[in-house]
Amino acid sequence: MRAPAVSQHHHPLTGGATFAPSSKTSIRGRSNLAIRMGLKEDAPSLAIVGVTGAVGQEFLSVLSDRAFPYQSIRMLASKRSAGKHLTFEDKDYIIEELNQDSFNGIDIVLFSAGGSISKEFGPIAIDHGSVVVDNSSAFRMDENVPLVIPEVNPDAMAHIKLRSGKGALIANPNCSTIICLMAATPLHRHAKVMRMVVSTYQAASGAGAAAMEELDLQTREVLQGKQPTCKIFKQQYAFNIFSHNAPVLSNGYNEEEMKLVKETRKIWNDMNIKVTATCIRVPVMRAHAESINLQFEKPLDESTARDILKRAAGVVVIDDRASNHFPTPLEVSNKDDVAVGRIRQDLSQDGNHGLDIFVCGDQIRKGAALNAIQIAEILL
Ligand SMILES: NC(=O)c1ccc[n+]([C@@H]2O[C@H](COP(=O)([O-])OP(=O)(O)OC[C@H]3O[C@@H](n4cnc5c(N)ncnc54)[C@H](OP(=O)(O)O)[C@@H]3O)[C@@H](O)[C@H]2O)c1
């Protein structure tokens, strides 16, 4: 059994020196994948691009928690981090600057360093025969690129094989889309969603390690009566909420909202599905919340919906009306499962054709690193 301990010169999320991935387990308990898989001689060689970032650090945590088999890992980031040391599973690594030769002999590359890095280096990794799992939005809507949530549409990547002599790229969907569809898909399979209205409450972590540090700093500053430092966001974040910082488009939607609209259509392979969204940043450190209103083609009562969600992989139901206990970002932070509650009939729709649900999910984990590594597991 490999020791699941990660220590690093500086952990960007905590500012501290170490963190322990073994504390990050599923709400339902650790995956039995960890038992099934061990270190294999023929295990893939991995590279992580953006290993020092919020998602990059979580990749390490998830790899360790799931005992993902690997021969070697190349730790890649920018020039700023090159030469720094990182300890993962009792082994010392030196972080390397990403360059054109970074992918020699690499089977799987996990990218999380922003869209421009994926656009520039993704094709180079593919040319080297690597399979890329990309966390950025750069290739998500490319019709030749599978956009995959393993619990929802694993078949979309069925044609992609490791070490086939041909590189390939698989895109990880946007974090809000993943969290939404983890809850909505089991219901969609049963009663077919016609229209979906999503309102998000998105955490600082979705904007990376520096945004989390800014929320922490601003909170202290405001409590001390100082002017808050606004570098990542243009306005005060602590003790405030605002429309998501993604660019606003000519149709009035911002890019984050349009990702929910377009990615849902692609993942569900249904160009007619009606989706609208309003995305809001809230001063929560980690994990997104979403209010989702669904309209179905077929009737679906709330107790059937609750049963379907209880049985759904990667979903946990927290729906205790008596004690007013429903999902919260804090409760799902560092957890694998997406939590669903407030499951109730939409009174404004006739004949059991509408439901309201409230969903929380750790978007660094299921919304990014975990989903990407589940994709990599399909390749094994
Ligand atoms: N945070 C989330 O919840 C989330 C969810 C889904 C998808 N994503 C996507 O994942 C990506 C990373 O997000 P994040 O939140 O992890 O950001 P982050 O915390 O700001 O980390 C950015 C990472 O990219 C690296 N990087 C920056 N410039 C680079 C360069 N020129 N060459 C190589 N590496 C470079 C950084 O390395 P240095 O430390 O050396 O600067 C760092 O490791 C983004 O595309 C984001 O949209 C994030």
From TrEMBL:
<dbReference type="Pfam" id="PF01118">
    <property type="entry name" value="Semialdhyde_dh"/>
</dbReference>
<feature type="domain" description="Semialdehyde dehydrogenase NAD-binding">
    <location>
        <begin position="45"/>
        <end position="160"/>
    </location>
</feature>
<dbReference type="InterPro" id="IPR005986">
    <property type="entry name" value="Asp_semialdehyde_DH_beta"/>
</dbReference>
<keyword id="KW-0560">Oxidoreductase</keyword>
<dbReference type="GO" id="GO:0009097">
    <property type="term" value="P:isoleucine biosynthetic process"/>
</dbReference>
<dbReference type="GO" id="GO:0050661">
    <property type="term" value="F:NADP binding"/>
</dbReference>
<comment type="pathway">
    <text>Amino-acid biosynthesis; L-methionine biosynthesis via de novo pathway; L-homoserine from L-aspartate: step 2/3.</text>
</comment>
<keyword id="KW-0220">Diaminopimelate biosynthesis</keyword>
<dbReference type="GO" id="GO:0051287">
    <property type="term" value="F:NAD binding"/>
</dbReference>
<keyword id="KW-0791">Threonine biosynthesis</keyword>
<dbReference type="InterPro" id="IPR012280">
    <property type="entry name" value="Semialdhyde_DH_dimer_dom"/>
</dbReference>
<dbReference type="InterPro" id="IPR000534">
    <property type="entry name" value="Semialdehyde_DH_NAD-bd"/>
</dbReference>
<keyword id="KW-0028">Amino-acid biosynthesis</keyword>
<dbReference type="GO" id="GO:0046983">
    <property type="term" value="F:protein dimerization activity"/>
</dbReference>
<protein>
    <recommendedName>
        <fullName>aspartate-semialdehyde dehydrogenase</fullName>
        <ecNumber>1.2.1.11</ecNumber>
    </recommendedName>
</protein>
<dbReference type="InterPro" id="IPR036291">
    <property type="entry name" value="NAD(P)-bd_dom_sf"/>
</dbReference>
<comment type="subunit">
    <text>Homodimer.</text>
</comment>
<feature type="region of interest" description="Disordered">
    <location>
        <begin position="1"/>
        <end position="25"/>
    </location>
</feature>
<dbReference type="Pfam" id="PF02774">
    <property type="entry name" value="Semialdhyde_dhC"/>
</dbReference>
<feature type="active site" description="Acyl-thioester intermediate">
    <location>
        <position position="175"/>
    </location>
</feature>
<keyword id="KW-0486">Methionine biosynthesis</keyword>
<feature type="active site" description="Proton acceptor">
    <location>
        <position position="288"/>
    </location>
</feature>
<dbReference type="InterPro" id="IPR012080">
    <property type="entry name" value="Asp_semialdehyde_DH"/>
</dbReference>
<comment type="pathway">
    <text>Amino-acid biosynthesis; L-threonine biosynthesis; L-threonine from L-aspartate: step 2/5.</text>
</comment>
<comment type="similarity">
    <text>Belongs to the aspartate-semialdehyde dehydrogenase family.</text>
</comment>
<dbReference type="GO" id="GO:0019877">
    <property type="term" value="P:diaminopimelate biosynthetic process"/>
</dbReference>
<dbReference type="GO" id="GO:0009086">
    <property type="term" value="P:methionine biosynthetic process"/>
</dbReference>
<keyword id="KW-0457">Lysine biosynthesis</keyword>
<dbReference type="GO" id="GO:0009089">
    <property type="term" value="P:lysine biosynthetic process via diaminopimelate"/>
</dbReference>
<dbReference type="GO" id="GO:0004073">
    <property type="term" value="F:aspartate-semialdehyde dehydrogenase activity"/>
</dbReference>
<keyword id="KW-0521">NADP</keyword>
<dbReference type="GO" id="GO:0009088">
    <property type="term" value="P:threonine biosynthetic process"/>
</dbReference>
